[in-house]
Amino acid sequence: MKMQTGELLYKGKAKSIYRTEKDDELLAVFRDDITAFNGEKKDEFAGKGEYNFAASAFFFDFLEKNGVKTHYLRAVDERSMVVSKLDMIPLEVIARNRAAGSIVKKFPFKEGQILNPPVISTDYKDDERGDPPINDDLVVALCLLTPDELMNVRETTLKINRILSDFFEELGLILVDFKIEFGRKDGIIVLGDEISMDSMRLWDRETMESFDKDVYRYDKGDFMSAYARVVEKINQWKDSHME
Ligand code: 5GP
């Protein structure tokens, strides 16, 4: 079923958000664009949007079933979903189970070092400022979250991390880290944006090979095959868990 798209409200690096006939619902369309290093590297690969859509739709549904409130309402086609309209909070909340990426550059961690307990950190979402790291006091001073909401976001992120880490373990993958974003609906904090291979690091448990955007970022191989493999594993898991 193809949905009639309304006015384009927002065009992100990999998703476009459209108005729908309902004031409190939006249409999120996962495009084939891929970018890295704040847009310095960019490409388009036919079908990439469908992989990230498939992963996001599955994870939102899976998290809802595990008690996490998300903006996901329903799939419309193979790259579009209807979501609740949220007032987005301009924070990128990052959970890490192993050291990789920016924290290895900034701090004396060894690549792959296990972080137990997991490390949660937050960046202020602002491309022009280069998404700078932000701490709890700054978040409250900027009125982005109240102290109670801060605690809620942290606890929810840890819960999401537990759910997703356990899931990926079943798939033979390590959830190294991921980035999520939250918004408010009727004053309640709700998970928004996407959860996909663009926004997480996934390593094979045996070989430590990447199955995520790092394959594209660092030219480690064919990232489309890596994304396809993750979706294939998700689909195999779904097939084996059908009631
Ligand atoms: P790092 O801080 O190491 O660059 O990123 C940590 C994790 O968050 C990685 O899984 C990375 O893909 C994700 N991440 C960080 N910033 C962004 C961003 O702006 N967009 C997306 N999609 N993911 C991000």
TrEMBL record:
<dbReference type="InterPro" id="IPR001636">
    <property type="entry name" value="SAICAR_synth"/>
</dbReference>
<keyword id="KW-0436">Ligase</keyword>
<dbReference type="GO" id="GO:0006189">
    <property type="term" value="P:'de novo' IMP biosynthetic process"/>
</dbReference>
<comment type="similarity">
    <text>Belongs to the SAICAR synthetase family.</text>
</comment>
<dbReference type="Pfam" id="PF01259">
    <property type="entry name" value="SAICAR_synt"/>
</dbReference>
<dbReference type="GO" id="GO:0009236">
    <property type="term" value="P:cobalamin biosynthetic process"/>
</dbReference>
<keyword id="KW-0547">Nucleotide-binding</keyword>
<dbReference type="GO" id="GO:0005524">
    <property type="term" value="F:ATP binding"/>
</dbReference>
<protein>
    <recommendedName>
        <fullName>Phosphoribosylaminoimidazole-succinocarboxamide synthase</fullName>
        <ecNumber>6.3.2.6</ecNumber>
    </recommendedName>
</protein>
<keyword id="KW-0067">ATP-binding</keyword>
<keyword id="KW-0658">Purine biosynthesis</keyword>
<dbReference type="InterPro" id="IPR028923">
    <property type="entry name" value="SAICAR_synt/ADE2_N"/>
</dbReference>
<comment type="pathway">
    <text>Purine metabolism; IMP biosynthesis via de novo pathway; 5-amino-1-(5-phospho-D-ribosyl)imidazole-4-carboxamide from 5-amino-1-(5-phospho-D-ribosyl)imidazole-4-carboxylate: step 1/2.</text>
</comment>
<dbReference type="InterPro" id="IPR050089">
    <property type="entry name" value="SAICAR_synthetase"/>
</dbReference>
<dbReference type="InterPro" id="IPR018236">
    <property type="entry name" value="SAICAR_synthetase_CS"/>
</dbReference>
<dbReference type="InterPro" id="IPR033934">
    <property type="entry name" value="SAICAR_synt_PurC"/>
</dbReference>
<feature type="domain" description="SAICAR synthetase/ADE2 N-terminal">
    <location>
        <begin position="8"/>
        <end position="233"/>
    </location>
</feature>
<dbReference type="GO" id="GO:0004639">
    <property type="term" value="F:phosphoribosylaminoimidazolesuccinocarboxamide synthase activity"/>
</dbReference>
